Amino acid sequence: EVQLVESGGGFVQPGGSLRLSCAASGFTVSRYYMIWVRQAPGKGLEWVSVLYGGGSTNYADSVKGRFTISRDKSKNTLYLQMNSLRAEDTAVYYCARVQQDLGADYWGQGTLVTVSS
Amino acid sequence: DIVMTQSPESLAVSLGERATIKCKSSQSVLYRSNNKNYLGWYQQKPGQPPKLLIYWASTRESGVPDRFSGSGSGTDFTLTISSLQAEDVAVYYCQQYFSMYTFGQGTKLEIK
Question: Do the Cβ atoms of A103 and B93 come within 8 Å?
C-alpha cells in the first residue's frame, strides 16, 4: 500500500528555517516525480517544488532561492529545506507522488508550518 | 508560467442535479506528441488532502464514480458531476502538469 507521511512542521519566527520530511512506503521515491504543494489557511492549493526521477528540480517563483527539495534513497524519504521563512509561507505542506503524465495520485496528510513573530 | 482560471468560485446545486465547473489555461496544455491534455481535476474535502479524480482531462482515476466526467482540450476544460450526491460537497481544483504543476483557484461546491 502506498503511503506518504509528512513531518517536521511547526512554529518558526520570520527568517528562520525548517526541514520537512515525507516518508514514503509502498513505492520507491526515486522512480517517480515527487512534488510539494502548500495550502495557506482558508486558501487554495499552490505548487511549491518538484523533484524529478533523474534528480533535477524546479521551484515556484515564490520560494526559489529559499527552499530546496531533495531525497534520501536509503530512507525512501523526500525533504523540503525551507530557509528565510516569511509569514506568507504559513501553510499546510503536502507531499505527493506524481505519475508522469497523469498527475498526483497519492498525497500525504500534510504538515502545518506557521511563521510568526 | 501557465495560469489556471476556474469558474465559478462557488456553486450551489440541488441533490440529483448537474454541477459544471470550468477551467481555462493561459496557454495550451495539449502535448502534441501523444495528443494528451496535461490537465487534472482534484477533489478536496475539509481536513483532507486533495484526491485525483481525472487525468488527461477526461480519464477517470480508478475508483472514481462515473457521475464525474471531464471534457475539453487545449485551453478550455470542464468538470461535470451528472447527479450531485451529498458526499460530493468539496472544493474542486484543476491542475495543469504540462509545464510545472499550477492549480486553479478552486471551486467550492455546496448543496442548494
Answer: no
Q: How far apart are CA B80 and CA B99, in angstroms?
A: 25
> For cell 511549491, what's the residue?
A48
8 A C-beta contact, residue B104 and residue B6: yes
Give the gap in angstroms from C-alpha B11 to the nearest C-alpha of chain A. Answer: 16
- Return the closest-CA partner of residue B15 out of B103, B80, B82, B60: B82
- pLDDT tens digit string along B50-107? 999 999 999 999 999 999 999 999 999 999 999 999 999 999 999 999 999 999 999 9
CB A33 within 8 A of CB B100: no
C-alpha cell at A72: 534520501
In this prediction, residue A91 has a pLDDT band, given cuts at 50, 70 and 90, of: very high
SS (H, E, C) A45-65: EEEEEEECCCCCEEECCCCCC
Q: What is the per-residue pLDDT across B10-46, written as a single tens digit (0 to 9) for each?
A: 999 999 999 999 999 999 999 999 999 999 999 999 9
Q: Are the beta carbons of B77 and B39 closer than 8 angstroms?
A: yes
Q: Which residue reads 527552499 in cell numbers?
A: A67
C-beta of residue B105 within 8 angstroms of C-beta of residue B7: no
| % of chain A residues with pLDDT over 90 | 95
Find the CB nearest B52 among A101, A105, A110.
A105
